């Protein structure tokens, strides 16, 4: 009797560039499966990218350039990119870059170690852009592998960087963490709560899954617009009538990651933190407060409340995400430097990259040349 014969069929490795919303929807199931296997953050989930693409303003100046690596019918790698035209330059950047705090590629854990480099090579060869700028890279981001020279098409480290602050430590409870704060920090928290409680009933709570989100998101957008005007800034995430915030929050809710914390005074929301929980970490996506109650620091009170809530439930880290704001730094026990990389394609891209380098060198030189403040002599 003949033994059974096993045929070994080698899978075909192919690459693809997704440029349309229709194709993005078609490959979303395979992408979601890869996202689960690779342990990606929500910023690399196909629904996050799709929600951004559906709602982003100035779409006429943008184009999807999402690189895919297939092994047969199995998706093994994704680099979610898009272009944005600025001053005649087609900039290749992370898709949903403005609303994603950490950028990276997705690669299957059991794939070829060179998969990310080969996929990038394909994206680069297909073109459609002049300048490449990939930012907000964590120290362990997989795309750091692209900094290795590859046929003269390597990316290079860029001078721009950002900071991410976190609360992490050996505490077994929120109360234990609270007692490690300075005496002034604890007093400020208690004083703020007492001041607000003199005006009404104060309540901290996690929004229930069945609570309507729309009124809360409208409140967030209203308070954020006040803050942006006050500080001379702008963000399409909070523009009146903009669908972007609601679309992104719906993704967090559908994935079961959403955590919205509110501080209410007589049933009126005076502070909100829209967070999400992933990989044992509470991540603070959008935080705002009512400036009418600024004297009592409702944002600070809410932050301390959700930090304690998170630690009480066994979460190891509270991540404030990007931004070096002072209120984050004051509570953080850890800071993480986020790096960036830049590359160019074609004459226009190389000239733009050269101009960026020259501008950086010039500013650095002027900074070094500035005279130091005269020392005040001792009397």
Structural account:
- By secondary structure, the protein is an alpha+beta fold.
- Helices cover 35% and strands 27% of the residues.
- The strands form two sheets. Strands 2, 5, 6, 8, 9, 10, 11, 12, 13, 14, 15 and 16 form a twelve-stranded mixed beta sheet that branches.
- α1 runs antiparallel to α2 and α5 crosses α8.
- The radius of gyration is 24 Å and the shape is globular.
- Mean pLDDT is 91; it is low at 1-10 and 373-379.
Which short descriptors sum up this protein?
globular, GNAT family N-acetyltransferase, 379 residues, 16 strands, four-stranded antiparallel beta sheet, alpha+beta
Q: Rg from C-alpha positions?
A: 24 Å
User: What is the terminal-to-terminal distance?
Assistant: 107 Å
Low-confidence stretches: 1-10, 373-379
Biggest sheet overview: 12 strands, mixed
Q: What are the secondary-structure elements, in order, as H or E?
A: EHHEEEEEEHEEEHHEHHEEEHEHEH
Total count of strands: 16
The percent range for strand residues is 25-35%
| Inertia-based shape | globular
Q: What's the total helix number?
A: 10
- Structural class from helices and strands? alpha+beta
Q: How much helix, percentage-wise, in residues?
A: 25-40%
Provide mean pLDDT, rounded. Answer: 91
Protein name: GNAT family N-acetyltransferase
Organism: Mesorhizobium australicum
Outline the fold blueprint.
Elements: E1 13-18, H1 21-38, H2 46-55, E2 62-64, E3 66-71, E4 74-79, E5 81-86, E6 89-94, E7 106-107, H3 115-126, E8 131-137, E9 156-157, E10 162-168, H4 174-179, H5 183-197, E11 202-206, H6 214-230, H7 244-254, E12 258-265, E13 268-278, E14 281-289, H8 298-312, E15 317-322, H9 326-331, E16 334-344, H10 346-369
């Amino acid at each position: 009797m003949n033994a059974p014969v096993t045929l070994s069929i080698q899978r075909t490795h192919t690459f693809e560039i997704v440029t349309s919303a229709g194709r993005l929807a078609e490959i979303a199931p395979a992408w979601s499966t890869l996202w689960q296997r690779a342990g990606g953050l929500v910023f690399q989930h196909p629904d996050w990218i799709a929600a951004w693409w559906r709602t982003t303003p100035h779409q006429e100046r943008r184009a999807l350039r999402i690189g895919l690596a297939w092994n047969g019918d199995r998706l093994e790698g994704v680099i979610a990119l898009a272009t944005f035209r600025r001053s005649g330059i087609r900039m290749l950047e992370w898709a949903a870059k403005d609303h994603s705090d950490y950028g990276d590629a997705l690669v299957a854990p059991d794939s070829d170690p060179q998969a990310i480099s080969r996929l990038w090579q394909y994206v680069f060869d297909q073109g459609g852009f002049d300048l490449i700028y990939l930012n907000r890279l964590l120290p362990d981001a997989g795309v750091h592998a692209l900094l290795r020279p590859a046929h003269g098409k390597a990316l290079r480290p860029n001078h721009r960087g950002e900071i991410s602050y976190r609360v992490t430590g050996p505490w077994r409870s929120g109360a234990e963490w609270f007692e490690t704060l300075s005496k002034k920090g604890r007093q400020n928290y208690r004083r703020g709560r007492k001041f607000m409680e003199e005006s009404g009933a104060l309540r901290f709570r996690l929004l229930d899954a069945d609570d309507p989100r729309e009124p809360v998101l409208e409140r967030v957008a209203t308070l954020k617009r006040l803050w942006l005007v006050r500080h001379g800034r702008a963000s399409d995430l909070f523009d009146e009538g903009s669908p972007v915030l609601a679309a992104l929050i719906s993704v967090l809710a559908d994935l079961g990651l959403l955590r919205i914390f509110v501080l209410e005074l007589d049933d009126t929301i005076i502070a909100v933190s829209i967070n999400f929980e992933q990989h044992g970490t509470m991540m603070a996506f959008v935080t705002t407060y009512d400036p009418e109650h600024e004297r009592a620091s409702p944002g600070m009170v809410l932050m301390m409340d959700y930090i304690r809530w998170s630690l009480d439930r066994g979460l190891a880290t509270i991540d404030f995400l990007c931004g070096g704001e002072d209120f984050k730094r004051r509570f953080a026990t850890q800071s993480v430097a986020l790096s960036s990389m830049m590359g160019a394609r074609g004459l226009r891209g190389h000239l733009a990259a050269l101009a960026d380098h020259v501008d950086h060198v010039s500013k650095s030189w002027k900074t070094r040349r500035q005279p130091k403040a005269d020392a005040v002599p001792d009397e």
